[in-house]
Amino acid sequence: MPDEYYMQQALKEAHEAFDEDEVPVGAVVVINNKIIARGHNQVERLNDSTAHAEIIALTSAYNHLGAKYLPDATLFVTVEPCLMCCGAMYWGKIGRIVYGASDEKNGGLRFFTDEDGLVKPESWPFHPKAQLVKGVLAEECGMLMKTFFRSKR
């Protein structure tokens, strides 16, 4: 399946978060072209600042597999991961990270990039073998965030 298909699935999770008045970020974890875990932001529901979509999806994947590492997994997330989520992906040895919209304000990658926006090899925030793909369905992912925050003003 192409990355766009799985990002659409992450977007479904983000819409669920939106409907629950949570910041609309969604994530899915895929191994061998099969979604093994899903998650969306639940910070408000759980009253837990760490209940980000990625953390929820990763925890579900670990429980599903009975494993603490996911080197063969791809995590699809609608918005650039924050610093906390980058760390969680590092420790989980996620093999591939695919995100939609960039997040200039809260995205974790800004801590690891040079002035041209390229991730510096010496400060790669993920497992050394991990791959990063940016901008899959970025417009749709970004528009959902903009719509959500516009409604809050």
Give the SSE map.
Blueprint: H1 3-19, E1 26-31, E2 34-40, H2 43-46, H3 53-65, E3 74-79, H4 83-91, E4 96-101, E5 131-133, H5 138-152
Parallel strand pairs: 3-4, 4-5
Antiparallel strand pairs: 1-2, 1-3
Helix pairs in contact: 1-5
Quick summary:
With 153 residues, this protein is α/β, with parallel strands linked by helices. The chain has 5 helices and 5 strands.
Question: What does this 3D model show about the protein?
Answer:
The chain is an alpha/beta fold. Helix content is 38%, strand content 18%. It has a 5-stranded mixed beta sheet with strand order 2-1-3-4-5. Helix 1 (3-19) runs parallel beside helix 5. It starts with a helix and ends with a helix.
Mean pLDDT: 93
Q: Using DSSP, what is the number of strands?
A: 5
- Tally of individual helices: 5
Terminal-residue CA separation:
38 Å
What characterizes the major β-sheet? 5 strands, mixed
Q: Which features characterize this protein?
A:
153 residues, alpha/beta, five-stranded mixed beta sheet, globular
